[in-house]
Amino acid sequence: MAKTEQGNGLDLRGSTEKLTDNGKGTLYGSDTEVNGSAIRGEEQVDKYGFTGGAQQYSVDSAEEIPIEVLRQREAKWLEMLNSWDKWMAKKHKKVKERCQKGIPPSLRGRAWLYLSGGKVKREQNQGKFEELDQHPGDPKWVDIIERDLHRQFPFHEMFSARGGHGQQDLFRVLKAYTLHRPEEGYCQAQAPIAAVLLMHMPAEDAFWVLVQICEKYLPGYYSTGLEAIQLDGEILYALLRRVSPAAHHHLKKHKLEPILYMTEWFMCAFSRTLPWASVLRVWDMFLCDGVKILFRVGLVLLKCTLGSQEKLKACQGLYETMELLRSIQPQYMQERFLVHEIMELSVSEKDIEKEHHSQLRRWKETRGDLHCKSPPRMHGAKAIMAAEPPRRQDLRQLPTIIVESPLAPKTDEVQAEDARESKKANEVNQKETILPPQETVNPYPPPPSDPSPLLKHMTMQESKESLSSAEHDTYL
Predict the structure, then answer these.
(1) In 368-466, which ranges are E strands?
(2) Rounded Cα gap, residues 181 and 139, in angstroms
(3) Is 453 helix (H, G, I), strand (E, B) or coil?
(4) CA distance 455 to 463
(5) Alpha helix ranges (H) inside 137-270
(6) How far is Cα 38 from Cα 201, in angstroms, rounded to an integer?
(7) How far apart are CA 270 and CA 275, in angstroms?
(8) Integer distance in angstroms from the first to the last C-alpha of the chain?
(9) What local confidence, expressed as pLDDT, does residue 388 receive?
C-alpha cells in the first residue's frame, strides 16, 4: 500500500492501461464511453452523481436535511461569503459551527474555495493557470497522469466517460500542478483529491484549492519518500494510545505499522474510504479546521473497529486486522454517527504539534535529517488567512448580483440602518417635487466598482463594520 514508484506516490488500485496509447486514443474521447464500454441507459444516477460503487448514496449512510433548513443555511452562507474577511476575523467560531453542520451543496464549491484560501491565490495569480494549461508538460509526468485518469471514481458520471470532460479537466489540473511544483511532480494520491474538487468547481478553482491542500494543509505529503505521511502515521499511533489503549495495544502486538493502514486514508483525505455523504462532511470540516480532522476520523475508525476485546476476537493476527481495517463496518462510517464522534474527540492542534515535535526528534535520532524540507503546516482556514491576509478585492465576486435574502432575519443593526435610509429617502422626497415614476430609492446600493484607497489598505482588525450590515447575498 505504501509502495513508491515513479509517480512518487501510492499504487492506488487499478490497471496500468494508458489513456492515450501510440496515438490510437486521445484525451478527447466520447462521453458515451465508460472505460471502454457503453453507458447503459437504465443506470440510475444518485444525487451525488454516482451510478454505482462503494460511494453510491444510500439512505442508511446519509443524513437528510429538510428543504426549509437547507434554504436557511444557504442564506446564511451567502451572507458569510459576501463579508468573508470580517466573518473569519470576528466570528470564526460561527463559521466553524456552520462547517460542522455541513455546507449547503449549492455553495460547497464556493465555500471550499474561500476556506482554503484558493480564491485569494487565484486572484493574486491572474492568468497563471491559463499559462500552465497551455504548456505541454513534462512527458514523464504526463505519461503517469494519463495512466491514472480512468481510476478516479469510475462510477461517477463526471469521470466515467473515457476521455470525457471530467477526465480532460482532471488531466489539466494535475499536469498544471507538476508545472507549478516541478520539484514535487505528481503523486497518485493527488488524483482523487483533484477529482473531488472538480465535482464542485471549475478546473482553475480546483487547481488553486489543490495547491493550497498540498502546500498549506498537507505539506510534504506528496513529495518523494513519503516522509511527511510516515511522520503523521507515528503521530496517529501515539495519539491512539490515549484515545483507545486497547486498539493501540493490538496494533503494537501485531507490529502493524501505521503507514500500512492510514496512508490512503490521509493522503486521499478519506475520499476513497467513506460513504460519499461522510466524505463531504469530513471535507467541510477539514478545509475549515485543518489536518486535525483527518486525525480525528482515523482515531474514530480505529477506536470503533479495534477498541474492545469483543471486537478483537475476529482479528487474531496481522492479516485479519488489515482485512478488518480495509472493510470497516458501515455503521461506523455513517454520516451522523461519524460527525458526532469527530466533534466529541478532544484532539487539538496543540496535541498534534506537540506530538509532531516529539516524533520529529525521534526520527532524527534514528534516521537522520528529513530529505524533504516541507513548509510549516497550517491548521485550517483561519491560520491560512492570518498568514496571508487577503485584500478585500481578492474576496469580491465579480460580476455581482445583489439580492436581499428573504430567509435571513434582519438584526437590530440592519433594522436601524433601514430606518436611517428610509428617513433620508423621505427628506429627499420632500425636497424634490417630481420624481420619475419608475425611480425608487434603493436602500441597498451595490458596492463601488473600485474600492477607495482606504478600503484597499484596510486590515481585518481595523474593520469596524457590522457583520450583519448592508452587505447582501450574491448568487453567483
Answers:
(1) 402-403
(2) 15
(3) helix
(4) 9
(5) 139-148, 165-180, 190-198, 203-212, 227-243, 245-253, 258-267
(6) 27
(7) 9
(8) 42
(9) 85
Task: Specify the residue for cell string 478532544.
Answer: 346
Whose CA is closest to 394, among 133, 176, 197, 126? Answer: 126
**pTM, two decimal places:** 0.78
Which pLDDT value is given to residue 399? 55
Half-sphere exposure of 133 (CA within 13 A, CB side): 16
148, HSE (Cβ side, Cα atoms, 13 Å) = 27
User: Could you tell me which residues are beta bridge partners of residue 33?
Assistant: 38
Phi/psi for 473 (5° steps) reads -70, 140
Cα–Cα–Cα angle for 443, 448, 452, rounded to 5 degrees: 125
Tell me the mean pLDDT per 10 residues along the chain, length 476. Answer: 41 39 36 41 79 74 88 94 93 96 96 96 95 95 95 93 93 98 94 98 97 96 91 96 94 92 96 94 98 97 90 83 91 94 94 94 88 86 91 74 51 53 50 38 40 38 37 32
Separation of alpha carbons 77 and 405, rounded Å: 11
Long-range residue pairs from 38-44, CB within 8 A, at least 24 positions apart, any chain:
39/160, 39/161
- Spatial distance between the Cα atoms of 22 and 378, rounded to a whole number of angstroms: 43
Assess contact for 71 and 407: CB atoms under 8 A.
Answer: yes
The three three-digit cell numbers of residue 265, written as one number: 486514508
Q: Which residues pair with 3 in a beta bridge?
A: none
Number of residues in the chain: 476
Residues 280 and 140: their CA atoms lie apart, in Å, by 33
Instruction: Classify 37 as helix, strand or coil.
Output: strand
